[in-house]
């Protein structure tokens, strides 16, 4: 998106597309999403989070609040930083999960097997687990 809005030539206000190659912020998202077959929802969410005021709609920002292409590009850069931060958080969470599971496996390997020479599949005592209802396996999310 930064390349698309490299100058004022691709930016317009008041409409998604001006017929001369100019797009508003939302119009550019839709255009680039179609052109490159990329999902638009995550981009819209990140740009929404990057707005100068929480809850400010993208169209209103583009048409009324944004003063220049430089300001538009700064919002795009902020959205890019937010995406990078989210990716870093996900990588860190995955690393912590892997480490914790390895620690649990090490601890279980040091403990003597439970009755019947079987390893426990749950890390909680059976009394701490809630009873399983038959309808729980039918849920769809």
Describe the structure.
The protein is mainly alpha-helical. It has a domain at 8-83. The chain has four helices and no strands. It has helices spanning 25-36, 41-49, 58-65, 69-110. The longest helix is centred in the middle third of the chain and has 42 residues, at 69-110. The radius of gyration is 25 Å and the shape is elongated. Residues 133-141 have low confidence and may be disordered.
Structural class by helix and strand composition: mainly alpha
The largest sheet is: none
| Overall pLDDT level | 82
Compute the separation of the termini in Å. Answer: 33 Å
**Which word captures the global form?**
elongated
For this entry, what is the oligomeric state of its chains? single chain
Q: Helical element count?
A: 4
**Helical amount:** 40-55%
Task: Give the DSSP E fraction (strand runs of 2 or more residues).
Answer: under 5%
Count of strand segments: 0
């Amino acid at each position: 998106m930064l390349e698309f809005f490299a100058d004022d030539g691709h930016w317009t206000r008041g409409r998604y597309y001006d017929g001369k190659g100019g797009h508003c912020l939302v119009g550019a998202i839709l255009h680039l999403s179609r052109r490159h077959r990329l999902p638009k929802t995550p981009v819209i969410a990140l740009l929404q989070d990057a707005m100068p005021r929480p809850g400010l709609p993208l169209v209103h920002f583009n048409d009324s609040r944004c003063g220049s292409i430089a300001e538009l590009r700064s919002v795009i850069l902020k959205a890019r930083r937010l995406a990078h931060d989210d990716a870093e958080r996900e990588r860190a969470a995955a690393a912590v999960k892997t480490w914790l599971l390895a620690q649990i496996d090490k601890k279980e390997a040091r403990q003597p097997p439970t009755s019947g020479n079987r390893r426990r599949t749950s890390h909680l005592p059976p009394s701490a687990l809630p009873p399983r209802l038959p309808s729980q396996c039918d849920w769809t999310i």
